Amino acid sequence: MKKKVGKYGSMCLYWKGTLVSTYAVDESDEEKELEYYYEVGEHMINMSKHIGYHIKDQIRVYFGFLNKIERRKREGLPIYASDHDKFAHSLFALLRLRLIENDEKDGYLIIKKKIKPKNKNHLCL
Fold first, then answer.
1. What distance separates the 2 farthest-apart alpha carbons in the chain?
2. How many structural domains is the chain composed of?
3. Residue 57 domain-assigned?
4. Count H helices, E strands: the chain?
5. Is residue 121 part of a domain?
6. 55-73 tens-digit pLDDT
7. What range does the domain containing 69 cover?
8. Relative to the CA of 73, which of 16, 21, 23, 114 has its CA 20 to 30 Å away?
């Protein structure tokens, strides 16, 4: 099972306002972490083009897969680890193509890990 909270927090992936996946953030630099996921989405687009899939077909498949996983999540059906990975790849492919915007309904949200004070006797007012 994947850990959901990393050294620096979590990245939550949403589709149609539903939280579908959560990934650990282990990079101190958010931009570097996000760039990795955008590169994975772009790689998926390029590999599909190389195989011979037209971009319109890819877009239809990405949207269809995201809708299918969101429906499974909403209905309480199991979602496998490989499906979570494909969900992230499809979401970031659509973000890379600028077909969806990262907003409160579709996209990602990075939640930074709460930093605990080193001094246990420290009073917070």
1. 63
2. 1
3. yes
4. 3, 3
5. no
6. 999 999 999 999 999 999 9
7. 28-100
8. 114
